[in-house]
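Bench log, entry 3. Co-assembly request; chain sequences pasted below exactly as received.
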Amino acid sequence: MSSPAGSIGPKVHRPRGRRQGGGDSELIVPLQERPESKGSLHRGLVWLAVGLAALYSWFAALTTPFTSRANVMTALPLIVALLAAVLFGFILRSRGTSERLASRPTGRRVWPWWAALGVVGAWELFCYFELPRFEHPTFSSLYDSASSSQPFKALLFFGWLALGWAIVRAYGRVRS
Amino acid sequence: MTWHAVSLAIWAIMALLLVGVGVAAVLSNGRLASVGDFGRVLMRSRLSGAVVIVIWMWLGWHFFAR
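Structure output for the full assembly:
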């Protein structure tokens, strides 16, 4: 009695690819790069970048504003971001994979975001022009109080780096 | 209640407002733009994208270097 292939008996692992020749001297030619290995490599690189960014944020949070160390630690990501924005734009355009991000209308209302940002901006301006600062803290003065905690400052720095990465990637995809 | 406490309370309301818009976008079943949609609107052209990058750079310099 015959059975469907693969339903009974031990499974034999066969490498994927095109066979050339016959018998024992078969040559397996890979059809293409395995997507799972490419994906795991990409995932590994992403986690490496995240780890390096976290480490960098930790050391950046150790610096004191208005010092040359703070200037350097903040300026380095700025320079990298500028270079990356130019590079991403160049690479994606040369590959022809760039896309106009806003050319895909979502039909979703954006005005609540503008309204919320407008309200927050108005409140920031009101606090900025009102004194004393203790009674009317601006966003910056709130940050100054919070940044005395080094882990919190490191977290904010990491968030700033992540935001910059997202912005630069999006910028590279925009076709002018 | 001091002005300081009032100001802090209003800042907390501002934070809740932004979070609320994000939550409302998720719950709106696609009628309101998500954070990602809003980001795409901001990055719609080279010029607006460059402005966003400059704002990001200024924020970092202002908070971490100055």
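The longest strand of chain A covers residues 18-20. Chain A is about 60% helix and 5% strand.
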